Amino acid sequence: MAAEKELIYTEADGSLGFGDYTRNEKGKVNAFEANGDQYRLRTFYETTKLEKNEAFAYESEPGTTVTDYKETEEGVSFTVSGIGSTDIILAVPDVPRARVWMDGSEVAADTSLTGKISFRVSLPEGEQHQILVHY
Fold first, then answer.
1. In angstroms, rounded to a whole number, what is the distance separating the alpha carbons of residues 127 and 10?
2. Is 78 exposed, middle or buried (0-12, 13-18, 19+ CB in 10 A)?
3. Within 13 Å, how many C-alpha atoms sit on residue 68's CB side?
4. Is residue 104 pLDDT above 70, yes or no?
5. What residues have CB less than 8 Å from 75, skipping those under 6 apart?
6. What single-letter DSSP state applies at residue 4?
7. Which string of b and e fits 6-18 if b means at least 16 CB within 10 Å?
8. pLDDT value, residue 96
């Protein structure tokens, strides 16, 4: 999948798309409103960082392109593309355990005491993976 030209946008179903792992220079959006929330984004080939209402929401190293990003009371789902082995960190509510699936298979993840979950995915260029984090 080619990276989106807009750095952050709302899709037709209300989900978010954000990030551009193909950028050589940092791209920033300091104020983007969607679904009553305020977002801030920084993205390029080294990292993609998303804040929601001035709080951490998503980070990847190296950078990624995310589509169909949806948050519910039960979890977060999105489609991700990028290059190579990628570490992803997501904000999660204070729950005893969150579980992560990639393309329907559970993957190892670490939940921190600070409300974050981290996991690694392999992203060969041109491939997309469906991610589901269930609280």
1. 22
2. buried
3. 10
4. yes
5. 98, 132, 133, 134, 135
6. P
7. ebbeeeeeebbbb
8. 73
The string of pLDDT tens digits covering residues 19-68 is 999 999 999 999 999 999 999 999 999 999 999 999 999 999 999 999 99
Q: Which of 15-19, 42-46, 124-128 has the lowest mean pLDDT?
A: 124-128
Which amino acid does the sequence have at 47?
T
Residue 120's H or E segment, with its range, is: strand 116-123
Q: Are 109 and 118 in contact (CB under 8 A)?
A: yes
Hunting for tokens 């260029």 — which residue is that? Answer: 125
- DSSP, res 26: -
DSSP, collapsed to helix, strand or coil, labels residue 5 as coil
Average pLDDT over residues 91-106: 90
Q: 23: which residues sit within 8 A by CB, 6+ positions away?
A: 3, 43, 44, 45, 63
Tokens 């954000």 -> residue: 18
What is the DSSP annotation of 93-104?
-S-S--EEEETT
